[in-house]
Amino acid sequence: MRQAYLYDAIRTPFGKIGGTLAGHRPDDLSAHVVRELVARAPKLEPGAIDEVIFGNANGAGEENRNVARMATLLAGLPTSIPGTTMNRLCGSSLDAAIAASRQIATDDAELVLVGGVESMSRAPWVLPKTERPYPMANLELANTTLGWRLVNPKMPGEWSVSLGEATEQLREKYAVTREDQDDFAATSHQLAAAAWERGDYENLVIEVPPASARGTAVVRDETVRPESSAAGLAALRTVFRPAETGTVTAGNASPMSDGASAAFIGSERGGEVLGADPIARIVSNGAFALDPQYFGFAPVEAVNMALAKAGLSWGNISAVELNEAFAAQSLACVRAWNIDPAIVNAWGGAIAIGHPLGASGLRILGTLARRLQACGERYGVAAICIGVGQGLAVVVENPNAA
């Protein structure tokens, strides 16, 4: 089996729902990161890209079902490059990276461009088709932005609760307090703000030009609040339950967001085609599933599986990027691993940065690789929880570690 390497990774700033990226179609955001990634490899002949794989959780609107193909065409790449879109909800772009690494390992490709995108601002409303023409009853629109929709009535009700209610159940099971969640969320904002000020994101985040003549360029994540504090977050009302029984708020959950990400994954030969050195080696991966309402805990076993495949233990791991869907589920995972919280999301997490579903997996993978580069340590883990009870994880190695 050949080794698969990560050669470069970029993303747009992540914009808040209805914010400055809301004027950009998701296929345009995808094309933008594809063009910029290719431009960062001046020795690359674009026709040498074997495939484009994108992650996307919606697909019901302007993504036009197969946003990978749309992005390739809109970016002006040769029409001979195939494109496919993967949907594992929040884990879609990390799944795209895993799929690309398998293609490299099995000698099916030398160089794959992977990406992910989500415009939660522009996710459409959908109207179900009727069973017979000209029905007399009213029809209800379904919002495709987030969560369950058009649920099969055969699905057990305990599985199809909202993501927020599921998180409330998870924090009850693992004894995560409201105070714990607010402190975790405030730290996420403070770490993200500090990372931006240090310039940690300069090589990761690319500018998005205005969507119109009256628009503005987007250069930074829109939802990072450096002034956040646990005391301030404690004043926010609960969203999914009354205050007497609820703990999850808009402040200790990731915001709905817009954004795109992209990366090159290739073999050693792929690096020669790019004229680039690898920034990480893809070591192993893990996928795990459990009862849908406990989706937030699925990364625990996904990571444990990936570490076992790699022949590693937590003692080998120096950096963790865990997507912060909610503070409660993130804390439950970190405690289950029994690891030092300081190695988790040291440059901030999704509670501060945002969580455009299809783009988040590659965000954490790219950030992990750059963090290992910066600290000089060898091994790291990227992990993400996925709605309907799944988790994904990828172990990477810094090829330049001392």
In short:
By secondary structure, this protein is of the alpha+beta class. It is built from eleven helices and twelve strands.
What's the pLDDT, averaged over the residues? 97
Gross morphology is globular
CATH domain class name of one domain: Alpha Beta
Proportion of helical residues: 25-40%
* CATH architecture label of one domain: 3-Layer(aba) Sandwich
Look up the CATH topology of one domain: Peroxisomal Thiolase, Chain A, domain 1
Largest sheet, described in full? 10 strands, mixed
Radius of gyration: 20 Å
Q: What portion of residues belong to β-strands?
A: 15-25%
Distance between the first and last residues' Cα: 25 Å
In the predicted model, the low-confidence regions spanning at least 5 consecutive residues are none
Describe the overall structure:
The structure is a single chain. The chain is an alpha+beta fold and 402 residues long. The chain has a domain at 281-396: Peroxisomal Thiolase, Chain A, domain 1. It is built from eleven helices and twelve strands. The strands form two sheets. Strands 1, 2, 3, 4, 5, 8, 9, 10, 11 and 12 form a ten-stranded mixed beta sheet that branches. Helix 2 links the parallel strand 3 and strand 4. The chain is globular and about 60 Å long.
What is the topological layout?
Blueprint (H helix, E strand, L loop, with lengths): L3 E8 L3 E2 L9 H14 L11 E5 L11 H8 L8 E4 L5 H14 L5 E9 L5 E2 L15 E2 L19 H11 L4 H21 L31 H4 L23 E10 L1 H7 L5 E10 L8 H13 L6 E6 L4 H11 L12 H4 L3 H19 L3 E8 L3 E8 L5
Parallel strand pairs: 3-4, 3-5, 10-11
Antiparallel strand pairs: 1-8, 1-9, 2-8, 5-8, 6-7, 9-12, 11-12
Helix pairs in contact: 1-2, 3-11
